[in-house]
Amino acid sequence: MFLLIPLVIYLSVGGIFLLAGFVSLFRIRTVMKHDGTRTDKLERLMLRIGFFSGLFILPSLGYLACLFYEYYHFDDWMIQWNRQMCKIFSIPCPAARHGPPDPKPIFHIYMVKYVCSMLVGVTSSVWLWSGKTVVSWRQFAERLQGKDTRSRGAYV
């Protein structure tokens, strides 16, 4: 619960701020269009924010769903593990239930959990990698190799 509750709160508060931001941007866009100002850059920014937030929120929701799955089934898994260990070490076992066999964790859900946790970080880098960023890194690499593309000025 110490992981689930803060993540739900942070995701909810972030969603509220995102919604408020989009409402404000749409109002600004409407005012700019009535004034006759071009809104190309603003619309591109809005599209980029929407794309990034979708790439961030969907894996976060998947991660939360996997955590809820773990939380819901954890007690049953621990009882099953305890039954297996008591047989190995010949100690008294908990009473067996009548009905379906004890559930086991589903491996694929754990893989989805870890992929979703990594995707959140990858989508954060999507925001950073633009054309200007690539050009800046290329210039930096060229300077490290001694191929300074800038004019050398008075230092030569």
Automatic annotation (TrEMBL):
Superkingdom in the source lineage: Eukaryota
Subcellular location: Membrane
Predominant cellular place of this UniProt entry's protein: membrane
InterPro entries: Frizzled/SFRP (IPR015526), Frizzled/Smoothened_7TM (IPR000539), GPCR_2-like_7TM (IPR017981)
Pfam families: Frizzled
Keyword terms: Developmental protein, Membrane, Receptor, Transmembrane, Transmembrane helix
Topological category with respect to the lipid bilayer: Multi-pass membrane protein
Gene Ontology terms for molecular function: Wnt receptor activity; Wnt-protein binding
UniProt entry tagged with the keyword Transmembrane helix: yes
Cellular-component GO terms for this entry: plasma membrane
Transmembrane segments: 6-28, 49-72, 107-129
Keyword Acetylation part of the UniProt annotation: no
Gene Ontology process terms (BP): canonical Wnt signaling pathway; non-canonical Wnt signaling pathway
Domain G-protein coupled receptors family 2 profile: 1-136
Family note: Belongs to the G-protein coupled receptor Fz/Smo family.
PANTHER family: FRIZZLED
Protein name as it appears in the record: G-protein coupled receptors family 2 profile 2 domain-containing protein
